[in-house]
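hi! just following up on the protien thing from before. the input was this:
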Amino acid sequence: MAQKKHRTPAPPPTAIKDRAERAMREGRFQLALELTKRLHKAMPTPVHQELVLQAYLGRASQLRTQGQTRDAVTVLHAALAVDHTTPVWLEQVAEELARCGEVNRALELLAQAPESAALAYVMAGAADAALQRETAGRALLPVSLDADFDRILLAFQQVEAGKDDDARATLQGIGLRSPFLEWKVLLRGFQAYYANDDARAQENWQRLAPERLPYRLAAPFRFRIDAEFRAAQSPETHTALQRQLDRMDGGEALLPQLRKLRGALTNPDSLAAALRQAETLLPALRRDAPQLESRLASCFYWAILDTGPDDILRYKRVFGRPAADPNFFRLEAMANEGGNFQDAHTSWQKYEKEIADDPKIWPSGQVERVRALVWLRMGRNAADILDDKEVAKLPASLRDHPDRLRPLNPSAEQCFRHALELAPDLLEAHEGLIQLHRRAARNAKAEQAARRLLEHIPDHLPTLEALSDLLLEREEYAEALELLKQAAKANPLNRHLRAKVGTAHLLAARSYSLADRFEEAGREYQAALNLNDPADAYTILARWAASEYRAGQTERAEELLGQARARTPSALAVAYLMLVESVRLKLHRSLKARFDKEFKAGLEEPPTAATAAAIVTFTLSLTKMKVVYYGQKAHAKKVLAYVEKAARADCTEAQMEQICTALIALNSVRAARRYLDAALKQFPANPLFPYLLAATYLKGDVSRAAVWQVRPMLEQARRLAEAMPADARRDKLLHDIQERLNALVAANPFAMGFMPDFFGQMFDDSYDDDDYDD
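and the predicted 3d structure came back as:
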């Protein structure tokens, strides 16, 4: 008798549902689709129908990402047989159809859901699908998108050809609502990436939507430059992106050898081993990645600057002669710039002659520019070395030093002039010539060079300022003022320039007052008043009052003097200014006596920090402007005595900066150190105060400075300055600190050795007021 067969009972619906959901979570959408279809057939509920639809959608997306778009479209059409009316479902299917290139069918579905938010996603998917097929993709798009499609294709061609400006102009036509906006952002990122502007490339690519194709195209490049993006990837994605990068960098077979070569290039003494490896690698590189040969040769070329000229012959054997430097004169010149400037000068001249003799390797019309740049570099090297007149002003320890650099031939002036003969519009050569003449006090030549530059660049701000300074020194105020106004018009937000215009108005006003042209003087004073900081208004009003006294307009003078006193931080400051003006403008002796009396009375009053800052700053301004008048030394002595008495008064940080800076400039070292001792305690985060304290020890012969004592001050100032927000004031201070440190190193052979540390352990950092000495 035959045994009965026992059938396995069908699993309950809940078990099938659990298996289907688990399969979808694991990405096994084909199994999930079969299970959900069986479940829906057995129990056709809305929940089970939703599961079937999600399985269909997941399977279609999976097939599309595997490149099987036809099968994906078939699955989606089958899904529509289950539900072809629900708007949300139709939107999801339409988006996926668009990504598969079925744009027209997707738009038909969305027509059943008017004003659907999915329209933008469908258009975005259509854009991605069309661009994957390049020119043939136009057929997938509605006519309204053809123009932007063409723009993206053209921009890709322009970027590939290196025509970045043209590409930017092309992309400009793509608006913010265009489905091709992501492609525009992708291309802008590529432009930045290939210009080595990694920050801007990251900024663009971070805006890409992860579900769009541009995001995936940018991923390997972003993986290379964006550390945060790289760290956020899963191990599998990390490996995949690295593999893509390796293929783009010249083939996976070459990469291990290139990485080994990179390690050999780090040898600071010789490139011999690295060049042997490169010689072995070159045949494969020329076969698999010929575009990398010139880049590899360039890496070795520049590495020779560090390893020395012995590697030049080895380089020549492996890579041959570089087209731009066939005899390695340029390389020799740059290597010698490390200390042997005379040999560098000789090599640069040979290189310039080589370019002139064989110009065909350079693009048409650029030979003269290249030669001019060589002469410019020679000029800068020569300008960095002091000439005989400047050397004569040095301390004996530096002047007679056996290793002192000697002036070069041709001179800096000759080099800059050669550069300008070849390229008359070369801004840097013009600037170098002006600075050279200004430094040597050859003002006539500096003026000539400045005027020649302005013929080419009429609104060049530094030159307008420099030329105006020269004219102010010659008291040619009218033209100087016009130049400064021209500069200010081009730079209306430059407060420094605005202040210079105000100063020029004041100087012009004084010249008019001395010439008894009081109406013109009044106009200039008013112009200065309109431009200057309100805190300085009292200084202008007081000067104007002195001019009116000279004109005999006593009532008007008293009115202006009253306004000055109302705006001043100190009556003594006004009295001091009026006393000086009464002497300079040769006012009646009664006025001189009046203001002298007020000045002396103010000095006897209890000192304040505001008054000290005002009068010592005015004293310094007289020194800077090279003002000389009868009684000046006596006035300065009384001012410094007052400032010393004010050392115990409460000071704001700004007042302390003013007082300390002025005292050092006026060579009042003892008083400056007293103030600085207090400033370092009251304002420990201000980098100016340790810098100024160091400056008090660096006056005179730098070689005699107590390096062990000064260097810690400068380094403290640098640390504090680096912690400040970046601005022009902070950058200038850092530059000045470095200049001081460089001067220490040049003047003292032990400046950076063990001696500072040795003495630093013997002495503490405190400063005793009793030891201060002018």
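Confidence is low (pLDDT under 50) at residues 750-774.
Residues 502 and 528 are 4 Å apart (CA to CA).
cheers
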